[in-house]
């Protein structure tokens, strides 16, 4: 197992490089960039004076991100554009910038944001508690609902409870999380009906003046709607996965033998079936975490104005804030790869019969 872990850890490096390279190439080819954003902002606030100052010239400038702009049409002095290119590091060839980025990221040096006047690592550490709160509580609730419900559905397979609960699960799964979030806002956050829950942030403005108990209540009060919107789509898949896994194990010979020995149904279910059936559920944990942290959290954070990693990455993509964009992508990818390795290790801890090394051989 130790050799397998070392190989998987070594495989993380080329995987990270490959993902970063693909996204780097896509960003270079995308129109618009930090320089174009800056130029557009300057023209919006004082474009007339700048145009008169640098009205000549028809040469092309590459912002280092795949977009070429006419200096004549932009009306910006060539000297200023060159200074901007040097400031953003776009005066270097793309391969050199990519290699430098990899070297810096190896030591978690993500540089500074183009627009926020802060280092990227500080921004990530500042926003991470929000995403962790949303992701962990959502995951906990999803597993607390899905596993007992899936077991109940497996035991009562074909019953009225199984049919009606399956119908509710399908409906919940069919509703996108962001659409359910809008529905919650309309119903419970002052949209059209009730104004019971806050719409922004994780804490109230008077947070520092509250007692410890009031802070706990205020924290969960703000989390109620975002977590509910996150959970509604996640528990459906896990519930059906748990049910099917238990049904598959219940039909095996060792369960028939255990029942023939006179064991109670609860002993058979939780003493024999549970351990084997939970393997596939455990294997799905990294996927659930990655989905909640890096996919669902993006839309939920934007909708509920939660200042977390999802909203940070979304704004970085809109503003072409490349250090933040690539820094968050690097963190997301690294966490996802590590979680996948943790899942494999957990497999072995739950069932020592599994041997990844022999399978690789």
Automatic annotation (TrEMBL):
<keyword id="KW-0813">Transport</keyword>
<feature type="transmembrane region" description="Helical">
    <location>
        <begin position="9"/>
        <end position="30"/>
    </location>
</feature>
<dbReference type="GO" id="GO:0055085">
    <property type="term" value="P:transmembrane transport"/>
</dbReference>
<keyword id="KW-0997">Cell inner membrane</keyword>
<feature type="region of interest" description="Disordered">
    <location>
        <begin position="51"/>
        <end position="73"/>
    </location>
</feature>
<dbReference type="GO" id="GO:0042884">
    <property type="term" value="P:microcin transport"/>
</dbReference>
<dbReference type="GO" id="GO:0005886">
    <property type="term" value="C:plasma membrane"/>
</dbReference>
<feature type="transmembrane region" description="Helical">
    <location>
        <begin position="132"/>
        <end position="151"/>
    </location>
</feature>
<comment type="similarity">
    <text>Belongs to the binding-protein-dependent transport system permease family.</text>
</comment>
<dbReference type="InterPro" id="IPR000515">
    <property type="entry name" value="MetI-like"/>
</dbReference>
<keyword id="KW-1133">Transmembrane helix</keyword>
<feature type="transmembrane region" description="Helical">
    <location>
        <begin position="324"/>
        <end position="350"/>
    </location>
</feature>
<keyword id="KW-0472">Membrane</keyword>
<feature type="domain" description="ABC transmembrane type-1">
    <location>
        <begin position="128"/>
        <end position="343"/>
    </location>
</feature>
<feature type="transmembrane region" description="Helical">
    <location>
        <begin position="219"/>
        <end position="242"/>
    </location>
</feature>
<keyword id="KW-0812">Transmembrane</keyword>
<dbReference type="Pfam" id="PF00528">
    <property type="entry name" value="BPD_transp_1"/>
</dbReference>
<feature type="compositionally biased region" description="Gly residues">
    <location>
        <begin position="51"/>
        <end position="66"/>
    </location>
</feature>
<dbReference type="InterPro" id="IPR035906">
    <property type="entry name" value="MetI-like_sf"/>
</dbReference>
<keyword id="KW-1003">Cell membrane</keyword>
<feature type="transmembrane region" description="Helical">
    <location>
        <begin position="277"/>
        <end position="304"/>
    </location>
</feature>
<comment type="function">
    <text>Probably part of a binding-protein-dependent transport system. Probably responsible for the translocation of the substrate across the membrane.</text>
</comment>
<protein>
    <recommendedName>
        <fullName>Inner membrane ABC transporter permease protein YejB</fullName>
    </recommendedName>
</protein>
<feature type="transmembrane region" description="Helical">
    <location>
        <begin position="163"/>
        <end position="189"/>
    </location>
</feature>
